[in-house]
Amino acid sequence: MQVYPSRLAQHVKQNNHSFYMIFGDEPLQKMLSIEAIRKQALQQGFDERQQLSVDNQFQWSRLIEATQTLSLFSSKQFIELELPTGKPGTEGSKTLCELAANANPDTIVLIHGQKIGRDVQNAKWFKALDKQGIYVPCYPLEGNNLHQWVAGYMNETGLKTGPESIKLLSDYCEGNLLAAKQEIDKLLLLFPNGLVTEQQIIESVVDQSRYNVFQLVDVMLSGDAVRMVKMLYRLEAEGVEPTIVCWALTREWQILNTLLADKQAGKSINWNQHRIWKNRQAFYLSAMQRMSFATLDNIQQKLQVLDQRIKQSQVMRPYVELCHLCLLFVPYDLTSIPFE
Fold first, then answer.
1. Minimal CA–CA distance to 164: which of 150, 153, 178?
2. Which residue ranges make up each domain of the chain?
3. CATH code linked to domain 5-138
4. Which of 27, 58, 63, 318 has CA atoms 20 to 30 A from the CA of 309?
5. Residue among 50, 17, 22, 19 at smallest CA distance from 34
6. What is the 3-state secondary structure (H, E, C) of 35-64?
7. Is the pLDDT score of 206 beyond 60?
8. Share above pLDDT 90 across residues of the chain, in percent, rounded to a whole number
């Protein structure tokens, strides 16, 4: 039976299993899932824990011996078997099938490893253990799933904030759930009253290199191309992830597109609605005088393509193309320069 990490803690409180399989390439979910199972097992009296790791020299008889050996001080045992590749081989498959056929209520076996494919899930040993226990897939969270995790963990820690703040934090930590947890834990220390605003997240969560990304945006909006290019070089040298810069450009495109549409419709700008503080309003007014919908459409198309290719690691020098994109906000005519 498959159980997702978000529901695992509640599931193990209500159900007992002899076998647990945790596979995936998202480290935080794996760690929290293993800890949840360990905690529940300990509460049920499984206070003897053994850890085994499968490598080229591993003898599967050790696993059988572990399930049959009890100390003088415990009648229940918890065995953790690390299976890095997710493929136990012929002997291992036979051993795991035997364990599944002779499940012992006084023994829990937890098997964990990296991401597995359909071939492993269709293997005889996997299906045998799955019938007796549960499978927990731990894969990176994206989009709404990531937003829900961030919102859930903030609520669990007692922090309260708005949806825009959750989106900001999610975008900043996309692809690194551990970083999201660490930042939320830090916010709890900084704001023990539990209330956090979007501006406080910008000022507190964002580290110095990320703060420089916001500085880059202001320079870009002001139209200072020379300083903007110098800042991009600095961000690249400091190792700032290209996805962070791409996120910032996407955010500014969305704001400018909305502001320009309101201006064309004859509406006055509601700066508070867009959460643009007074010290930054001049940057947007300057950019709006230079921008057109045609330019914004061009930027949108190139942002979408570049964002996808960066996430797929298909760009050799992402900062070169990020520089081109920033220059479009100035705007510069780059029609003669190809975007891959």
1. 150
2. 5-138, 143-204, 208-329
3. 3.40.50.300
4. 27
5. 22
6. HHHHHHHHHCCCCEEEEEECCCCCCCHHHH
7. no
8. 42
| pLDDT in the model for residue 208 | 38
Sign of CA dihedral 299, 300, 302, 306: positive
State how far the Cα of 54 lies from the Cα of 86, in Å rounded to an integer: 10
State which fold the 143-204 domain adopts: Helicase, Ruva Protein; domain 3 (1.10.8)
Find the helix or strand (DSSP H, E) in which 20 lies. strand 19-24
Residue type, 10: Q
Burial class of 218 by CB neighbour count within 10 A (0 to 12, 13 to 18, 19+): middle
Q: Return d(Cα 63, Cα 69) in angstroms, integer.
A: 10
**How confident is the model over 247-263, as pLDDT tens digits?**
889 989 999 999 999 88
The dihedral of CA 172, 177, 180, 182: what is its sign? Answer: negative
Q: How many CA atoms lie within 13 A of 29 on its CB side?
A: 27
In terms of pTM, does the model score above 0.90?
no
Cis peptide before 88 (omega within 30 of 0): no
pLDDT of residue 306: 87
CA distance 42 to 74: 12
Predicted pLDDT at 235: 86
Q: Which of 202, 149, 155, 217 is nearest to 178 (CA)?
A: 149
Which CATH number is correct for 208-329, 3.30.70.20, 2.40.50.140, 1.20.272.10, 1.10.1740.10? 1.20.272.10
At residue 113, what are phi and psi to the nearest 5 degrees?
-175, -170
Which residue type does 234 have?
R
Q: Distance between CA atoms of 214 and 2, rounded to whole angstroms?
A: 42
